[in-house]
Amino acid sequence: MGKGRLEAFSDGVIAILITIMVLEMKVPHGYDLKALRPLIAVFMSYVLSFIYLGIYWNNHHHLLQAVRHVNGSILWANLHLLFWLSLIPFVSGWMGENHFAAIPVALYGTVLLFAALAYIILTRTLIGHHGRDSTLAIALGRDFKGKISLVFYVLAIPLAFVNSWFACLLYIIVAVMWLIPDRRIEKTLIP
């Protein structure tokens, strides 16, 4: 089957998740800048989560540009990814509302870890469907950034109980690492 519906559905879900996150930020009751101070942690959490959802949206788009068609296994693998992404507004809000306390920060990292694993499962399912010599398989190669991201998440989760800000720093490092454009698929598609 074609990939168009999967791509459109995923785009819609990610757009809704971003909308939910911004709607969770409550308008302050004051009229001066001091009224915004209690929202700083919530806003910081929103920015980090917005960036993560943007990274997933961008990489998902590139991923699907390298495939021709999808099957039922791919649809389920994609839903698995969307499930974990759908938890980001909740853990992001909880983390921000509680000023980056240990348990919310650890749970945020757990959701990021499982979203990353789900993304890997999706790529493996796509490669299995299209073949090890497919454009996608060649473009992804050994996926160093994907593997190092998992390591950072696994380190950050217990680190949240020692120092939640250091755990958040690891989440930020992973986000920055993925913000640097990954041109593997583009280079493979456009010689």
Features:
single chain; 191 residues; mainly alpha; 9 helices; potassium transport; DUF1211 domain-containing protein; ion transport; potassium channel activity; transmembrane
Structure description:
With 191 residues, this protein is mostly helical. The chain is built from nine helices and no strands. The mean pLDDT is 92.
What does this entry show, briefly?
By secondary structure, the chain is mostly helical.
**Residue-averaged pLDDT, rounded?**
92
Beta-strand content bin: under 5%
Number of strands: 0
Distance between the termini: 27 Å
Shape: globular
Order of helices and strands: HHHHHHHHH
Supply the number of helical segments: 9
Percent range of helical residues:
over 70%
Uncertain segments of ≥5 residues (pLDDT<50)? none
Give the helix/strand class: mainly alpha
Described by strand count, sense and barrel closure, the largest sheet is:
none
Number of domains: 1
Q: Taking Cα atoms only, what radius of gyration do you get, to the nearest Å?
A: 18 Å
Helices and strands, with pairings:
Blueprint: H1 4-23, H2 40-65, H3 72-86, H4 88-97, H5 102-130, H6 135-140, H7 144-159, H8 164-179, H9 184-189
Helix pairs in contact: 1-2, 1-3, 1-4, 2-4, 2-8, 3-5, 4-5, 5-7, 5-8, 7-8
